[in-house]
Amino acid sequence: MLPRWDVSLTYAYLDAEVTRSNTTAVGTVSGIRQSLAGKTPINVPEHSGVAWTSYHITDNWEVGGGVYYATDRFTDNVNEVVLPGYARLDAVLAYHQKHYDVQVNIFNLADTVYYESGQTRSALPGVPLSAQATFTLKY
């Protein structure tokens, strides 16, 4: 129907759980020592995915964009500290030739503050509004 239009949708459902463990950890909030059995591993969102689309304006030019999202996830082994979910909007502009490609990716177009991952007492912030240029030789 639209041969120059590409659409990609991905979704992951992860019902992650430590099924057996002889290890314990102290709760960050409660201070109580607990078994890891039955807990969700750190930094594993239950739902995540990407919706991406691109359009080849000509044989050489391509433009696209999409959304990456992940739901809440735990940042400690005993599931007391939660990192909030987020959605990030990205874009791409590319110029294709027979022997090379030039591509510019723009990440986090809305400049949203979000956290990609965390540990017991810290969180790794996601990328602010930023861009990356790539030049690829083809031979």
Give the topology.
Blueprint: E1 5-13, E2 24-26, E3 33-35, E4 47-56, E5 61-70, E6 73-74, E7 82-83, E8 86-96, E9 100-107, E10 115-119, E11 122-125, E12 130-137
Antiparallel strand pairs: 1-4, 2-3, 4-5, 5-8, 6-7, 8-9, 9-12, 10-11
Can you give a write-up of this model?
With 139 residues, this protein is mostly beta strands. It has one domain. The chain is 0% helix and 54% strand.
List keywords for this structure.
single chain; about 140 residues; mainly beta; 6-stranded antiparallel β-sheet; two-stranded antiparallel ribbon; about 0% helix; about 55% strand; elongated
Can you give me a brief rundown of this structure?
With 139 residues, this protein is an all-beta fold.
Write down the oligomeric state. Answer: single chain
Question: What is the overall number of helices?
Answer: 0
Q: Strand pairing plus helix content: what structural class?
A: mainly beta
- Portion of residues in beta strands equals over 45%
Main β sheet profile: 6 strands, antiparallel
How many extended strands?
Answer: 12
Identify low-pLDDT runs. Answer: none
Radius of gyration, Cα only, in angstroms?
20 Å
Number of domains: 1
Helix proportion range: under 10%
Provide the residue-averaged pLDDT.
94
Element-by-element helix/strand order? EEEEEEEEEEEE
Q: In angstroms, what separates the terminal alpha carbons?
A: 32 Å
Silhouette? elongated
**Strand numbers in spatial order across the main sheet:** 1-4-5-8-9-12
